[in-house]
Design brief:
The complex is a heterodimer.
Chain A: H1 2-5, E1 6-17, E2 20-31, E3 35-39, H2 46-54, E4 61-66, E5 69-73, E6 76-77, E7 85-88, H3 100-105, H4 113-126, H5 142-154, E8 160-164, H6 172-189, E9 193-197, H7 200-206, E10 209-214, E11 217-222, H8 224-229, H9 234-239, E12 244-251, E13 255-258, E14 261-264, E15 266-267, E16 276-281, E17 286-288, E18 295-303, E19 307-314, E20 319-325, E21 335-340, E22 344-345, E23 347-349, H10 352-371
Parallel strand pairs in A: 3-9, 3-10, 7-8, 8-9, 15-22
Antiparallel strand pairs in A: 1-2, 1-4, 4-5, 5-6, 10-11, 12-13, 12-16, 13-14, 16-23, 17-21, 18-19, 18-21, 19-20
Helix pairs in contact in A: 4-5, 6-7
Chain B: H1 15-21, H2 25-46, H3 53-95, E1 96-97, H4 101-107, H5 116-127, H6 132-141, H7 153-189, H8 194-223, H9 226-230, H10 236-245, H11 250-281, E2 292-293, H12 296-332, H13 335-368, H14 372-381, H15 389-415, H16 428-450, H17 455-463, H18 468-497, H19 500-505, H20 513-522, H21 526-553
Parallel strand pairs in B: 1-2
The chains are: A alpha+beta, B mainly alpha.
Chain lengths: 372, 554
């Protein structure tokens, strides 16, 4: 029963350019109607994964299933044209010699003329560009081009929509607005989609499930909330969101002794007492309180309008970041009182071997999550 | 549109009005160069005020219908030939991967180095009845061995297609490289097969570039004089030559020229419109495109095809030239040959300098004055590339001969001097005609370099205390050096290869290599024409090297 819901399944796919492995044993499952995202720095292999799913690249190992049917395995590739997968390219790849209407109509074939026109108009209305249907790609703005690309990919009602860095060519304000819009459009259409980005804000804004990719592997496949609050490894903790890792030791069942004092909170994995750990402290975990006993020296201040991001030096020598309302204005060099408010204790045992093991087990567990 | 900030007070003035108020020296200059193009053109059309009826009678009865038919065959045949060869090669080297692709991508430009008339007589030498190929065939299969007649419309079309396909190839390859594979992928993701995607998307997207290349090809084909006269294939250019030097009727030559010009300007209009569209069709970011890997038999087929075209268009003719040259070297390499070479080099150098200097001034004028009138003048001034050499020769000779006569009469009246010719005995007419014909290539290279010298660069230099001559010397010149060098090379080589202008306007004693080739080939002396041809071929390799460097960069 749950398998029927899986639109896309990647089973241990491996990909290489020449001798170099760019994707290693990567697996994931995307259920109907969900929006997935592969998040990672450039060169981590995320675009390769996307192009392999689309059918443009051959597979070295593993298998790709679309609606339960194998579309790619070593030595076999269903041609891209037969996969019913829509794709939004990074540069949109709109056809400059066709009008907006004809671009959107391009993928529709074998329909009665009335249905044909209706379906194009529907897609154009969905992205709010119906009035621009007669214009040519070079005559409309970048944001509009992006939406035409989306309408073009959606019009043939694909089983799966792929988007390659869909917002990277837009300026920051437009990017934010469009990413919300795109999510709404995809949800309205009920489209299953997978996109890749290097920008975590886009990932958070659009995706239901995010896979953090590094060196051709998915480190964690999870919801945005869990990635932020329960990162599976220090790497992810560093990559997703802001914050700092500070030294600590686990004490009396579930508390951690740190430079911020003895901290109490929810611990995901039970860690034995006296384990030396790194604790993830997010900027919102540090409250500013002048009456507090705990003092910290301001190293740097970054004014952000509504609030100020302070980088603070604790007496223990650890550095933490604190997000403080901007009327509490302190200069570098001053001491301020802070009060820790760490709800999730995200711990990473310091022992190198142990850390590696933890990473692996979290990978196992995230693989479990994916298979579920 | 972004408005360029003013550099000088005059520069801020735009539009027509200011020009009436106070035209600057720059604007006068652009007008002057534009007139150099406009005067010969209008002379040709004014020639209709005295139609040479007797000659036209003769033309209509014997020649005119054949001229028109031959021109039609040439236009249709050469455009389909170059499109077929150019597009297929461009797609293979631009978007696919097969053994030798990197070498072929520049090597396929080599035919540009060989003047069309050289390829024409070498092909005749190889494939004609007395040539090695047919002789060998007769030896194998007896006297009855059939071979298509090279001296035919088909032969002309084939030779011209092989010589001119690089124009289509170069432009189409550019288009395919920037957008070919990505467009194909987009089409595939929308359910198109690769072949369907090629015809529905890739080809239509590249249409502006391809048609642009084809218009250049047709301009060359219509302008060609050397190849068609070697094949005895009558076209307007040969008719113009005959009207002048056979019937001694300059006005008939001018009238024929005006007909040819009318045809050429249809092409110019198409080309200028396309250039605008190309700008729009260019994608803003050039995506990293990987090539389509050809496998199995296909990749060797591709290699074989490219080798085949390259061989018959360049390698074999070049080898034949070398072997002929070696045969006759000790007879032909003498002081007469060196004299011809000296004339070609001198004319090439003089006109290259003249063209580069004028192009530089035009480019500066265009930079200072952004108004439409100045740019219209510059556009006109660089329109000469479309004018066939025979036409230009007629159009320039007529007004200069008239001016000469006026000057002579004036000299007679004022000083009582008895002079038979003043300007006509000099190389001035030739140099002017070269300058008009080859201004575009020079201007384009300098102007594109000039676009990099933005006003911000001027302002930045000014803030650092550089002004006037120093600014020119320390900032502008180093930035323009590459463009000036390219302009000099292109103009030099074009003039070296030029045949009809030189043939028709040279003063006594100014024979060049190209003229010698014309004389020898019109007598069927292929071997003796090989040495000057090989010399031209070597000089023709210079711009290819420049082009290669450019293609290497992208």
């Amino acid at each position: 029963m749950p398998d029927q819901q899986a639109v896309l399944e990647l089973k241990h796919i491996t990909q290489a350019y020449g001798q170099q492995l760019v994707v290693k044993e990567l697996s994931l499952t995307l259920e109907r109607g969900t929006i997935g995202c592969l998040l990672g720095a450039s060169g981590c292999g995320k675009t390769t994964v996307l192009r392999t799913i689309a059918g443009f690249e051959p597979l070295l190992e593993g298998e790709i299933l679309l609606d339960g049917e194998c579309v790619s395995k070593p030595g076999y590739q269903l041609p891209p044209a037969k996969r019913q997968i829509g794709m939004v390219f990074q540069d949109y790849a709109l056809f400059p010699h066709l009008s907006v209407f004809d671009n959107v109509a391009f993928g529709l074939r074998g329909l009665a003329k009335a249905t044909h026109i209706k379906q194009v108009n529907e897609a154009l209305e969905l992205v709010g560009l119906h009035s621009e249907h007669a214009r040519y790609p070079h005559e409309i703005s970048g944001g509009q081009q992006q939406r035409v690309a989306l309408a073009r990919a959606l019009a043939p009602k694909p089983r799966l929509l792929l988007m390659d860095e869909p917002f990277s060519n837009l300026d920051v304000t437009l990017r934010e607005r469009l990413s919300m819009e795109v999510r709404d459009i995809l949800k309205e259409y009920g489209t299953t989609a997978l996109f890749v980005t290097h920008n975590q804000h886009e990932a958070f804004a659009v995706a239901d499930r995010i896979g953090v990719m590094h060196n051709g592997e998915i480190l964690q496949w999870d919801s945005a909330h869990n990635l932020y609050h329960q990162p599976a490894s220090p790497q992810i903790a560093n990559f997703v969101g802001e914050g700092a890792l500070i030294k600590g030791v686990v004490k009396d069942k579930g508390r951690v002794e740190t430079g911020l004092g003895l901290l109490d909170g929810i611990m995901t994995d039970a860690t034995p007492d006296n384990t030396a750990v790194q604790l993830l402290v997010r900027p919102e975990d540090i409250l500013h309180n002048d009456d507090s006993q705990v003092q910290a020296k301001v190293l740097r201040r970054n004014f952000r309008g509504a609030n100020i991001m302070y980088t603070l030096l604790l007496e223990s020598g650890d550095k933490v970041q604190a997000l403080v309302p901007s009327h509490c204005d302190h200069q570098p060099g001053e001491n301020i009182g802070i009060q820790p408010d760490v709800r999730h204790l995200v711990l990473f045992p310091i022992d190198l071997q142990k850390r590696q093991m933890t990473t692996r087990t979290t990978q196992e567990s995230s693989r479990h999550l994916r298979r579920r | 549109m972004q408005q360029t900030p003013a550099i000088t007070p005059e520069a801020s003035s735009r539009g027509f009005r200011c020009f009436h108020v106070k035209p600057s020296a720059w604007q006068w200059l652009t007008l002057g160069v534009a007139l150099l193009v406009l005067v010969p053109l209008s002379v040709l059309f004014f020639a209709w005020t005295e139609p040479a009826w007797d000659i036209w009678q003769h033309l209509r009865e014997t020649l005119l219908s054949r001229l028109l038919l031959n021109t039609m065959i040439l236009v249709v045949g050469v455009s389909s030939g170059t499109l077929l060869i150019g597009i297929s090669l461009a797609w293979l080297t631009g978007a696919c991967d097969f053994p030798g692709r990197r070498v072929f991508s520049w090597a396929l430009l080599l035919p540009l180095a060989m003047p069309t008339y050289v390829l024409a007589f070498v092909s005749l030498g190889i494939f004609d009845f007395t040539g090695p190929v047919q002789t060998q065939l007769r030896e194998w299969f007896g006297r009855g061995a059939w071979f298509p007649d090279m001296r035919s419309a088909g032969g002309v079309v084939l030779v011209m297609s092989l010589a001119l396909y690089p124009y289509v190839y170069l432009l189409a390859r550019n288009a395919f490289r920037t957008q070919g594979k990505r467009a194909l992928e987009a089409a595939q993701s929308l359910g198109c097969s690769p072949v369907g995607g090629f015809f529905k998307v890739v080809l239509p997207m590249a249409r502006p570039w391809i048609t642009g290349g084809a218009t250049l090809v047709l301009m060359e084909a219509l302008a060609d004089f050397g190849a068609v006269s070697i094949f005895n294939y009558d076209t307007f250019t040969t008719a113009i030559y005959k009207a002048w030097f056979g019937f001694f009727s300059l006005s008939a030559a001018a009238q024929l020229s005006s007909l040819l010009v009318a045809m050429v300007f249809v092409l110019v209009a198409i080309e200028q419109r396309l250039r605008k569209r190309m700008r729009f069709a260019q994608s803003r970011i050039t995506p990293q495109t990987e090539s389509i890997k050809l496998t199995g038999g296909r990749k060797w087929l591709a290699t074989g095809y490219c080798t085949g075209i390259l061989s018959i268009a360049f390698l074999l003719p070049a080898l034949q030239l070398i072997s002929w040259s070696l045969e006759i070297f000790h007879e032909e390499f003498d002081s007469r040959y060196l004299g011809l070479l000296g004339h070609s080099l001198a004319l090439g150098l003089m006109s290259a300098l003249l063209i580069a200097a004028t192009a530089l001034l035009l480019a500066y004028a265009g930079r200072r004055h952004q108004d439409r009138l100045t740019h219209g003048f510059i556009r006109t001034a660089t329109l000469g590339y479309a004018l066939p050499g025979t036409v230009l020769a007629v159009g320039i000779f007529i007004p200069l001969a008239w001016l000469d006569n006026q000057l002579i009469r004036l000299a007679q009246q004022l000083f009582g001097l008895q002079i038979s010719q003043l300007l006509q005995g000099t190389i001035l007419i030739m140099l002017l005609a070269y300058m008009i014909r080859f201004m575009a290539a020079g201007f384009k290279s300098i102007d594109s370099a000039m676009h990099r010298v933005t006003t911000n660069i001027d302002e930045a230099s000014r803030l650092m205390g550089l002004r006037g001559i120093k600014l020119l010397y320390k900032v502008h010149l180093p930035m323009l050096r590459g463009g000036i060098f390219t302009a000099l090379t292109l103009a030099f080589v074009d003039v070296m290869k030029e045949m009809p202008i030189t043939l028709m306007t040279r003063p006594f004693g100014w024979d060049t290599l190209a003229v010698k080739i014309f004389e020898l080939t019109s007598e069927g002396e292929w071997e003796r024409a090989a040495l000057p041809s090989l010399t031209l071929l070597m000089s023709g390799l210079l711009p290819i090297v420049l082009l290669m460097r450019q293609t290497d960069k992208d």
